[in-house]
Fold this protein.
Amino acid sequence: MIALAVDFVQAYAKGTVLFVPGNPASSVYIILDGRIIVTKGDQQVLLGPAGIVGDVAFFQEATHSYAAVCATDVKVLELNKDNITSILAGQPRLACSLLSELARRVSDEGAMNFFQGVQEGQEERVSTLGDLLPEGHPTFNTRVPAEYGEYVFPTEVTCPICSTEFTGLRERTSRLQMERHDPDFRTVYRNFEPNFYYIWVCPQCSFAYPARRFNRLRRTAVEKGREVLLGNPVDFNFAFDGQRTIQQVIISYYLAMRSFEIVGATLEQWANLWLRLVWIYEDLEEGELALAAAEKARDYFAEAMSTSARSAAGDQQLYILLGELELRLGNTGAAFNNFHRAATMTGGDPRHKRLASDRIQDLRYRQNQA
């Protein structure tokens, strides 16, 4: 098949989104090498060589009802309106295979039924990483929406610890549409969650760090990381799937904590990491985990406030964050004091003063309503 249709073999990198629900069907993809994950709601199927995606919608001249994302680097035979007649005419066995798959699937319109190339072993293999998570931590096997792939792009990364080259994902900031700014400085975007892509993880030594600072470690931190991570290699491997799961996202944060301890991250880095976990757990409606993370973030921010120096605007921001975290923890008095410090500070950012003053008014209104 490859010999006769080599001009139509396409290679796609891990994480590439082939299509999402609602996209017009322009191609049929027959997997030659690698794996593609298809998802529809809570259903998911992993397809390997001989798997076929996009065929039903293509032949019906309709839009796709499911998403297809490259779980690994893949090679596919890509059929479209321009080449399908010539390819199938020259390869009757391929035509029969495609028609067989198509006939079995269209009998149950809208169902996620795949027959050729279905791969076993789709469950998360994270048992060896379980000790990183708090005891009793739930498992979140839901995958991030395939549509998120439209807002990230792959970039080649070199691990500062073991020099392994791997592919990381960066946000396409030009495509993001802001929905709102929350009082705790979280920016919420339409149809995208940047906190799912905050951490990069080296698949070789499991060094994990915020993407924006991944290659900006001090020399002494790199030396310490090499001493510990290379001198005492872990007995597990971690790599994001092409369409990562929420569980993998959360594990990446706890792997980052391990790296933070080794290389000596700053208090602000620790606090910001826990704050992002607060947001993730809140979105997942995991109240107890969110509160535990909020307490950690509060403690790190408070220690940073008392032991390190910043600009007046930086102090204002920390006071506001402390106020927001104290509110989550039910400490209204402490929240009020922090907002008051931000609002009355000499100098600083006028926007922070207005935000802190607004939060004080919110608290007073709540007290009057109680």
